């Protein structure tokens, strides 16, 4: 059946602000779906309160509603537009929940809107654990013994029946909120109480914990003709007991026989068919017994696109959301083409001739005293994916992508040798377990012990052991004696030059030189869905060390955009937004655009975004090799957050052009000393400050500056380890803490302007002219990180004089820093004096917000300025200014039950929302304004 | 656990292209037609599939051998491929039910393999240049010498190979009191074809391919299964004649792969050698009768020419391959006879096409009922 022509206008519901468990993967799916529907001539209306998304951009949808995800706003949209159908499967659980709510309120019916891509029954049955269990029983799909409890008493009875260990999961929650494994009565009572509370229907499912069973996921797609395909199989290296979002996962499945795999495939089909007759994507999770029986039990099914389907799309090249949207409007799979080959059928199952490894990225350091053990509740804030021709290469590349100051897995001198700590870590998995498995093997802890404690399949452990055995073969050599085949093998196994250098006790540059002399060069292979069976038309590459290179270099002028790597607190989706716009703007200027990024959740790593996508770590060696291969005009670093920006120095040193603001200017802004001198020269006030190396010096400096003091390590992201201290004892302790975590780091002490008002401004500068795109005033007083404060665009109570000062300063600073592109300046205002706190000559977190609020493509403009294609005065700025836009920070504290919501100079929010108000009499504004001091701590 | 050999090995293609790697499996030299398989699971089933007889197989998946080998996952009693080309040949395997590593399995069967070569480059090469003969050696690295050996290897085109893998004597599988009796003509039958029939309450007698109709009819079967097998079907004149006699009996017939091609040839259709065969477990096929699609397991280098089927009065095309529009299934209009180019017994591969066995059993039931009434 071709597409249903009665559908002319579709509403897509987004997933709202980023929280743990629901991140920018839904920007990716929503954007894909919107584009896919528009290709068919369908009018797309989009609602999402998250301004940092690409999906809420004019390039993606026809009508955009940056409104809260509440039924009243859905109603508003339906009154204003003639919507035929709603597609609620692209915005995670948030969108599904909203769709259910609207259905219960009769809104869809009232406006004659059809729900496509899923049906209410399917959502209901998969989220209601009791109903789901019953259904699975009916269709003979085994599950872990389980029962639901709606009261504390019921829960206790169930526990008595099943015995420990038990899993407790709350119904209708996100990312496993309120879920956990308990081994004893005391923990059980606590978790049961919590689980019942978190569930919106006060229901928990208690099941026997299948600890140590192997965990797998399948991604399915189905059309209206009931044709189903598996897009990807994913194996969780971390077995049952750790949330899949917190597990290291591998695709394709590595340790599954065909017999068991096909049995699982049959079960997945049966399950999908049992929950309803909808066309769209679906994710099914299974556990397999680690014995000769290979029993399979179902864990859950999600009738929507998910974090896993985003990963599966990037892992295989098969754009699940894009195709799912087409299926939702009636197409059958066999009527669509494979989006990568463009010649073969979309009805097929992708096959991989490489391996991908996904590793989550955690940010426990932001949640002091949080429980860092991994379990059923997701705690990671982002993820990276490494692609390689082997598991070893893929896992090394994933480790290189993490930006946790490691050069890969091992061979970087950062091993842990404390046996006791290692053994504890193996059993109580946290963010660093993978590294500790390596350490354990290296230390000679018996395999059996490692396996017993981690329950990780032997195959994976043996792969890691093989790395250690191989390293021994390397270590006996020096750079001069190292044979070509060993160096080649090291590179094939994914070792970075830095790691090889560590093993050979020489410099990274020497290894680089040696391998170039030996002709050991990176080659690029295609992610093509079909293992090279057919010719592919899509330029989606990864690097490896092998014979044939498939990435042909064109003679067009090119520019590379560096992405922002894994999402983390302080650097998230907003930079992906900037990268995507940078790419589109460079394309408009006639450049061939090349994107480098390793975050599978993003739109920037959608192969439809840039002309060429290199899915690679944003890690020097990989970037440099791509530059040598592609020979671009230059590299754009100011859109990819700190990750990209910090590479400017090396790029510059290697004679590669940094597009826009030069490295020297970036460095000048970063360096407190020189930047302050610059401010001083221009009579721009700044808080008194100083730089120290140790606690001793800090006490002396404190006398000079006076308390309270803002203490932080220099060169950090999102206010990491930043703290306000009010006396010498606190100062001493914090300085020692910082030096313990970051030995050798310089420490900055600023006099803290207590009670000051904070504001920030973003501007575009071409080196001469400056255009201020917006000034935002924070609601909370100084002391709370700008990312964590409510902020209002434009300022709500700054006098004209103050605004004038701010504008003058921004212009002056931008020009003096020789900014070409974007700049963000932060201010503290006290006693009518405007102090500059810092300046960042790059795209900031607030740029997408202002662009959305004023409905102007600022990143596009800024990129054209950076490229030298346009001057500031070439643009006809026309911001849509009416009322105020409030930036609402959104936190994920609910994932860390023991952590209090305390805000300070270190950023803790995971996402943001936008809320428009007409006047300052708005009750929401009054409320947050009155609570502005509530959460301030130090 | 057997260690992998570390000898250098070489793969030479008939067009002179050379790939260097390391040895795996037995040390030696082997020749065959090079083909690639894109399946990510089921390597043991693939290697023991008799249809691969005479073929050097390149596996697209990057790791092969991860879960060792298992007694229950064989499609014949030995490794049937001539040689193997892989990226990563697993030295270590992990599976509780596995008995042996792939390395020792290959050593035992004397099968030669090459590892750590750019398999993707090889597949792209074959994809562009078409199927050709090749040689792997882990004992001789002199390319000129290997070229001489390779020159002696006959082309697959016009080669009959089934007789090398067909059973020598008939044997029974299944419950003697089963509802139906199926005569399986063995051109290199995969064990799972028989298993699928036995599961559906059939007693199978597997006959050598040179059995006569009289011999088979003497056993009084309810239907005939024409199995898969290797080689070029167009030269199998005796088999086509036998198939003709079987069809004329009027009992239900089900043909798979080579069996399908023989049924097509018997109806006057043509078979052609494909530029690149279909080998994998992700092949999309559309059932033209129901409009439904199925993901199928495929392994064939020859195919029934679609053009030759147009206007043929005796058969109709029931299944079409969705990627390239090639013919994937036919049925006879006036006989209870049908066949598919792919593998509904799919071991390895998805179970989407198992319904064809039900159709076959249904046909036998119907015919049996009409006879008894």
UniProtKB/TrEMBL annotation, chain A:
GO process terms (BP): glutamine metabolic process; L-arginine biosynthetic process; pyrimidine nucleotide biosynthetic process
GO molecular function: ATP binding; carbamoyl-phosphate synthase (ammonia) activity; carbamoyl-phosphate synthase (glutamine-hydrolyzing) activity; metal ion binding
Cellular component annotations (GO), alphabetically ordered: cytoplasm
The reaction(s) this protein catalyses: hydrogencarbonate + L-glutamine + 2 ATP + H2O = carbamoyl phosphate + L-glutamate + 2 ADP + phosphate + 2 H(+); hydrogencarbonate + NH4(+) + 2 ATP = carbamoyl phosphate + 2 ADP + phosphate + 2 H(+)
Taxonomic superkingdom: Bacteria
Enzyme class: ligase
Domain ATP-grasp stretches: 133-329, 676-867
One Pfam assignment: CPSase_L_D2
Cofactor(s) needed by this chain: Mn(2+)
Pathway: Amino-acid biosynthesis; L-arginine biosynthesis; carbamoyl phosphate from bicarbonate: step 1/1; Pyrimidine metabolism; UMP biosynthesis via de novo pathway; (S)-dihydroorotate from bicarbonate: step 1/3
Keyword terms, alphabetized: Amino-acid biosynthesis, Arginine biosynthesis, ATP-binding, Ligase, Magnesium, Manganese, Metal-binding, Nucleotide-binding, Pyrimidine biosynthesis, Repeat
Enzyme Commission number(s) from the entry: 6.3.5.5
InterPro entries linked to this entry: ATP-grasp, ATP_grasp_subdomain_1, CarbamoylP_synth_lsu_oligo_sf, CPAse_ATP-bd, CPSase_dom, CPSase_lsu, CPSase_lsu_oligo, CPSase_preATP-grasp
Quaternary structure note: Composed of two chains; the small (or glutamine) chain promotes the hydrolysis of glutamine to ammonia, which is used by the large (or ammonia) chain to synthesize carbamoyl phosphate. Tetramer of heterodimers (alpha,beta)4.
Function: Large subunit of the glutamine-dependent carbamoyl phosphate synthetase (CPSase). CPSase catalyzes the formation of carbamoyl phosphate from the ammonia moiety of glutamine, carbonate, and phosphate donated by ATP, constituting the first step of 2 biosynthetic pathways, one leading to arginine and/or urea and the other to pyrimidine nucleotides.
Family from the record: Belongs to the CarB family.
Name of the protein in question: Carbamoyl-phosphate synthase large subunit
Organism: Cryomorpha ignava
UniProtKB/TrEMBL annotation, chain B:
SUPFAM superfamilies: Carbamoyl phosphate synthetase, small subunit N-terminal domain, Class I glutamine amidotransferase-like
Gene designation per UniProt: carA
Residue positions of the active site: 257, 343, 345
UniProt-annotated stretches for the region CPSase: 1-180
Broad EC category: ligase
Residues where L-glutamine binds: 51, 229, 231, 258, 261, 299, 301-302
Annotated catalysed reactions: hydrogencarbonate + L-glutamine + 2 ATP + H2O = carbamoyl phosphate + L-glutamate + 2 ADP + phosphate + 2 H(+); L-glutamine + H2O = L-glutamate + NH4(+)
Keyword Aminoacyl-tRNA synthetase: no
Domain Carbamoyl-phosphate synthase small subunit N-terminal as annotated: residue spans: 7-137
Taxonomic superkingdom: Bacteria
Family: Belongs to the CarA family.
CDD domains: GATase1_CPSase
The keyword Transferase is annotated on this UniProt entry: no
Official protein name in the record: Carbamoyl phosphate synthase small chain
Assembly and binders: Composed of two chains; the small (or glutamine) chain promotes the hydrolysis of glutamine to ammonia, which is used by the large (or ammonia) chain to synthesize carbamoyl phosphate. Tetramer of heterodimers (alpha,beta)4.
Annotated metabolic or biological route of this protein: Pyrimidine metabolism; UMP biosynthesis via de novo pathway; (S)-dihydroorotate from bicarbonate: step 1/3; Amino-acid biosynthesis; L-arginine biosynthesis; carbamoyl phosphate from bicarbonate: step 1/1
Function according to Swiss-Prot or TrEMBL: Small subunit of the glutamine-dependent carbamoyl phosphate synthetase (CPSase). CPSase catalyzes the formation of carbamoyl phosphate from the ammonia moiety of glutamine, carbonate, and phosphate donated by ATP, constituting the first step of 2 biosynthetic pathways, one leading to arginine and/or urea and the other to pyrimidine nucleotides. The small subunit (glutamine amidotransferase) binds and cleaves glutamine to supply the large subunit with the substrate ammonia.
Any one GO MF annotation of this record: ATP binding
InterPro entries: Anth_synth/Amidotransfase, CarbamoylP_synth_ssu, CarbamoylP_synth_ssu_N, CarbP_synth_ssu_N_sf, Class_I_gatase-like, CPSase_GATase1, GATASE
Keywords, sorted A to Z: Amino-acid biosynthesis, Arginine biosynthesis, ATP-binding, Glutamine amidotransferase, Ligase, Nucleotide-binding, Pyrimidine biosynthesis
GO annotation (BP), single: glutamine metabolic process
Species of the source: Cryomorpha ignava
């Amino acid at each position: 059946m071709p597409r249903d022509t009665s559908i002319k206008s579709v509403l897509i519901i987004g997933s709202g602000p980023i929280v743990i468990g629901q991140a920018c993967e839904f920007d990716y799916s929503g954007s894909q779906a919107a584009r896919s529907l528009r290709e068919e001539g369908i009018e797309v209306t989009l609602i999402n309160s998250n301004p940092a998304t690409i999906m809420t951009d004019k390039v993606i949808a026809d009508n955009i509603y940056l409104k809260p995800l509440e039924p009243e706003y859905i109603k508003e949209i339906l009154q204003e537009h003639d919507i035929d159908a709603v597609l609620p499967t692209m915005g995670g659980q948030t969108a599904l929940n909203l769709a259910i709510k609207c259905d219960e309120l009769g809104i869809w019916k009232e406006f004659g809107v059809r729900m496509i891509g899923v049906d209410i029954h399917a959502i209901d049955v998969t989220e209601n654990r009791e109903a789901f269990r019953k259904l699975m029983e009916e269709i003979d799909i085994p599950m872990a013994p389980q029962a639901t409890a709606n009261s504390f008493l019921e829960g206790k009875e169930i526990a008595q029946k099943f015995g420990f260990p038990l899993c407790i999961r709350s119904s209708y929650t996100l990312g496993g909120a309120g879920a956990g494994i308990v081994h004893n009565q005391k923990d059980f009572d606590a978790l049961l109480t919590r689980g019942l509370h978190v569930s919106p229907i006060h229901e928990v499912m208690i099941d026997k914990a299948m600890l140590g069973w192997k965990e797998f996921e399948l991604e399915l797609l189905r059309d209206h003709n009931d044709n189903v395909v598996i897009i990807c199989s994913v194996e969780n290296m971390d077995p049952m007991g750790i949330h899949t979002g917190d597990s290291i996962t591998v695709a394709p499945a590595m340790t599954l026989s065909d017999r068991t795999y096909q049995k699982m495939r049959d079960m997945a089909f049966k399950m999908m068919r049992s929950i309803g007759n909808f066309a769209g994507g679906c994710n099914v999770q299974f556990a397999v017994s680690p014995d000769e029986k290979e029993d399979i039990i179902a864990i859950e099914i999600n009738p929507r696109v998910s974090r896993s389907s985003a990963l599966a799309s990037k892992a295989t090249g098969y754009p699940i959301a894009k195709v799912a949207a087409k299926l939702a409007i009636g197409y059958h799979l066999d009527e669509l083409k494979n989006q990568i080959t463009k010649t073969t059928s979309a009805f097929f199952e992708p096959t991989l001739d490489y391996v991908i490894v996904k590793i989550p990225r955690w940010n426990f350091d932001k949640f002091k005293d949080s429980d860092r053990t991994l379990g059923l509740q997701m705690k990671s804030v982002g993820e990276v994916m490494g692609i390689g021709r082997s598991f070893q290469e893929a896992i090394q590349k994933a480790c290189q992508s993490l930006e946790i100051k490691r050069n890969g897995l091992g061979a970087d001198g950062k091993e842990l040798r404390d046996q006791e700590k290692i053994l504890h870590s193996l059993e109580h998995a946290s963010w660093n377990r993978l590294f500790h498995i390596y350490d354990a093997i290296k230390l000679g802890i018996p395999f059996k012990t490692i396996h017993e404690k981690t329950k990780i399949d032997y195959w994976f452990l043996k792969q890691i052991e093989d790395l250690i055995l191989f390293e021994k073969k390397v270590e006996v050599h020096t750079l001069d004696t190292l044979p070509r085949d060993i160096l080649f093998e090291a590179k094939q196994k994914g070792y970075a030059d830095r790691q090889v250098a560590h093993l050979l006790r020489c410099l990274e540059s020497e290894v680089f030189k040696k391998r170039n002399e030996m002709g050991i060069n990176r080659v690029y292979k295609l992610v093509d869905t079909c293992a090279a069976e057919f010719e592919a038309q899509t330029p989606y590459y990864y690097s490896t060390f092998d014979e044939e290179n498939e990435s042909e270099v064109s003679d067009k002028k090119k520019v590379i955009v560096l992405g922002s790597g894994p999402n983390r607190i302080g650097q998230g989706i907003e930079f992906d937004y900037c990268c995507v716009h940078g790419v589109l703007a460079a394309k408009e200027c006639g450049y061939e655009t090349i994107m480098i990024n390793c975050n599978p959740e993003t739109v920037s790593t959608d192969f439809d975004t840039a002309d060429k996508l290199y899915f690679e770590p944003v890690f020097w060696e990989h970037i440099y090799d791509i530059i040598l291969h592609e020979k671009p005009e230059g590299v754009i670093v100011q859109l990819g957050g700190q990750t990209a920006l910090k590479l400017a120095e090396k790029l510059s040193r290697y004679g590669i052009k940094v597009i826009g603001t030069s490295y020297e200017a970036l460095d000048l802004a970063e360096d407190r000393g020189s930047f302050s001198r610059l401010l001083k020269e221009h009579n721009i006030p700044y808080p008194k400050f100083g730089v120290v190396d140790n606690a001793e010096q800090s006490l002396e400096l404190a006398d000079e500056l006076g308390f309270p003091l803002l203490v932080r390590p220099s060169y950090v992201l999102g206010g990491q380890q930043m703290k306000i201290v009010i006396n010498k004892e606190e100062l001493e302790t914090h300085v020692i803490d910082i030096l313990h975590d970051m030995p050798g780091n310089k420490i900055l002490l600023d006099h803290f302007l207590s009670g000051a008002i904070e504001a920030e401004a973003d501007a575009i500068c071409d080196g001469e002219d400056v255009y201020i795109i917006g000034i935002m005033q924070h609601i909370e007083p100084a002391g709370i990180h700008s990312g964590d404060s409510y902020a209002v665009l434009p300022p709500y109570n700054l006098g004209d004089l103050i605004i004038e000062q701010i504008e003058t300063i921004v212009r002056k600073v931008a020009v003096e820093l020789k900014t070409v592109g974007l700049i963000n300046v932060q201010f503290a205002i006290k006693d009518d004096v405007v102090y500059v706190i810092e300046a960042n000559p790059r795209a900031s977190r607030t740029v997408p917000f202002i662009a959305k609020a004023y409905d102007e493509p600022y990143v596009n403009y800024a990129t054209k300025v950076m490229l030298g294609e346009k001057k500031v005065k070439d643009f006809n700025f026309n911001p849509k200014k009416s009322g105020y836009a409030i930036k609402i920070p959104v936190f994920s504290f609910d994932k860390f039950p023991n952590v209090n919501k305390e805000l300070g100079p270190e950023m803790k929010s995971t996402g943001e929302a936008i809320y428009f108000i007409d006047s300052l009499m708005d009750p929401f504004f009054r409320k947050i304004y009155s609570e502005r001091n509530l959460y301030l701590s130090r | 656990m057997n260690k992998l050999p570390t000898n250098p090995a070489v793969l030479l293609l008939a067009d002179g292209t050379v790939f260097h790697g390391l040895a795996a499996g037995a040390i030696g030299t082997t020749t065959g037609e090079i083909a690639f398989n894109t399946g990510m699971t089921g390597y043991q089933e693939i290697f023991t599939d008799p249809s691969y007889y005479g073929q050097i197989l390149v596996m697209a998946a990057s790791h092969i051998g991860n879960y060792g080998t298992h007694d229950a996952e064989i499609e014949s009693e030995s490794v049937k491929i001539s040689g193997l080309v892989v990226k990563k040949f697993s030295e270590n395997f992990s599976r509780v039910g596995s008995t042996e590593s792939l390395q020792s399995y290959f050593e035992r069967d004397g099968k030669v393999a090459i590892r750590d070569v750019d398999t993707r480059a090889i597949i792209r090469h074959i994809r562009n240049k078409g199927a050709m003969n090749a040689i792997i050696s882990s004992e001789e690295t002199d390319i000129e010498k290997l070229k001489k050996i390779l020159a002696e290897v006959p082309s697959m085109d016009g080669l009959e190979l089934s007789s090398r893998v067909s059973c020598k004597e008939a044997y029974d599988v299944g419950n003697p009191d089963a509802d139906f009796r199926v005569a399986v003509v063995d051109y290199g039958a995969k064990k799972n074809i028989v298993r699928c029939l036995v599961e559906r309450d059939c007693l199978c007698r597997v006959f050598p391919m040179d059995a006569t109709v009289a011999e088979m009819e003497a056993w009084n079967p309810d239907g005939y299964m024409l199995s898969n097998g290797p080689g070029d079907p167009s030269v199998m004149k005796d088999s086509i004649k036998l198939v003709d006699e079987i069809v004329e009996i009027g009992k239900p017939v089900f043909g798979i792969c080579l069996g399908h091609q023989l049924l097509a040839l018997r109806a006057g259709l043509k078979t052609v050698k494909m530029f690149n065969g279909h080998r994998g477990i992700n092949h999309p096929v559309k059932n033209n009768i129901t409009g439904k699609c199925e993901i199928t397991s495929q392994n064939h280098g020859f195919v029934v020419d679609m053009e030759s089927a147009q206007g043929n009065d005796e058969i109709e095309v029931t299944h079409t391959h969705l990627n390239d529009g090639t013919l994937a299934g036919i049925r006879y209009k006036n006989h209870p006879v049908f066949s598919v180019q792919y593998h509904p017994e799919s071991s390895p591969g998805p179970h989407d096409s198992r319904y064809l066995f039900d159709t076959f059993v249904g046909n036998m039931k119907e015919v049996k009922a009409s006879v008894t009434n």
